[in-house]
Amino acid sequence: MAGQGLLAAPVASSLISCSTAASATKAQADTSKTANLGTPKITLNVRDFGATGNGSTKDTVAIQQALDRCWVLGGGEVVVPAGNYLTGAIALKSNTILRFEKDAVLLGSPDFADYPVMQVRWEGKWIPGHVGLIYAVEANNIGVVGPGKIMGHHDLGGRPTAEKPLRHPALIEPIGCNTMRFEDFSTDYFRMWCLHPTYCENIVIKNLIIRSTGGNGDGIDIDSCKHVRIEGCDINTGDDCISLKSGRGMEGYSLLHTTEDVHISNCTFADSIFACIGIGSETSGGIRNVRIEHCKFTFAQTHAIYIKTRPGRGAFIEDIIVDDIDVAGTVAGFLRLNMLGSGLQDQNPVPGDEGIPTVRNWQFSNIRVKDVPVLIDGTAVHPNKPLDGFSFINVTGTCAKGISLANIKKAKLRDIKVTGYTGPLLSISNVTGSGLEGATTIDPPKLPDPVPTPTQPYRLG
């Protein structure tokens, strides 16, 4: 199968570099080159290559031949007309768009053997695993567009185990790719990620309807990618609707492939197990320049937004801007900050104070909440590296409890006009800045044990 055996090492030198951006405004980066892949040179129909679309015959070979033929002829568009196409993993090649017409459905095979094994990311680590139903490796100018539907086989979802250590297949997974679009289709999967770009650059994800309820069913996982635009999506998932990651432990810290310049706008989120938007906890490559705006959060089993990491990750989370959002239906609250103990500790964590992530410049403004249990749970911040710059401005609505913050400098709180809460609106420990008048004092957070320096230095391999 195309792609089998590729990426045998955790990282190839030809993958995207992790050069950083100058400011948070890059989250609104010029994506015109991403959205426009040019006029297709040729158009091929999968039916002409033997695809049946009858829902029972495997059409893997026919669809792959159409994609390969399109690629060798210089690129263009491969059309999937109405029908139900049962298939194993298929690989996109450079300069090729896969278009699903109305009433076209791609059905994932139930057989793990139909998904080649290579190095894939799982919870911030490169491990052997099955590729996605639609995947690509180091391909440029690619896309998947609708209005059809892509359905993974629900029996393939789940987590790797000691008995079955291979990672299960994602639904769509480009790795090391540049310039791509995913637009105007719907997905259905269960207990696994729907869209998982890794080490990619220049991505547009637009007008998707994502359904992935139950278990570890993330909607969109942005994993060590940069220049990403997500807009107009309707996402209802089990685990995070959108998760931003960049690696875990010394492996991720050594590779330092940062997730940066991510712009999320005009989306609707609902989550039945965890948070709607999770930043972390795999942050060892760093996360910066993220802008979330004009979005609606309709339900979250925990928090609408959860920013999370832990000592042992290293790197940074910086320049996070959230503006003009509506939040309702959260079981735990609007916002949680957890820098002390989120996620699995790595087998090779970044030791000492170097392993405590640097966190700075987080801005929240024009927030409208309805009956959230807690406005902000923000005490789990390490005093050795306090959050440097936190603003919470123009917040209205109703909440049961207010704001608790710890280990923050340069805080700016203004125009917080919420009602319905009991107890103090603001409770703090080791917080400096403006808008703190009348705050009650709380105990500092309990700190985890320091991460020790290993007897042998870490080496990639």
From TrEMBL:
Name a Pfam family for this protein: Glyco_hydro_28
**From start to end residue, where is composition biased (Pro residues)?**
445-455
Query: Is Ubl conjugation a UniProt keyword of this protein?
Result: no
Q: What SUPFAM superfamilies does this protein map onto?
A: Pectin lyase-like
Signal peptide from the UniProt entry: 1-24
**Annotated region (Disordered), positions in chain:** 437-461
Which keywords, in A-to-Z order, does the entry hold? Glycosidase, Hydrolase, Signal
Q: Can the keyword Signal be found in this entry's annotation?
A: yes
InterPro entries xref list:
GH28_Enzymes, Glyco_hydro_28, PbH1, Pectin_lyas_fold, Pectin_lyase_fold/virulence
- Stated family: Belongs to the glycosyl hydrolase 28 family.
* Annotated PANTHER family: PECTIN LYASE-RELATED (PTHR31339), PLASMIN AND FIBRONECTIN-BINDING PROTEIN A (PTHR31339:SF9)
| Name of the molecule in the record | Glycoside hydrolase family 28 protein
Question: Whose protein is this, by species?
Answer: Hymenobacter cavernae
Upper taxonomic lineage: Bacteria, Pseudomonadati, Bacteroidota, Cytophagia, Cytophagales
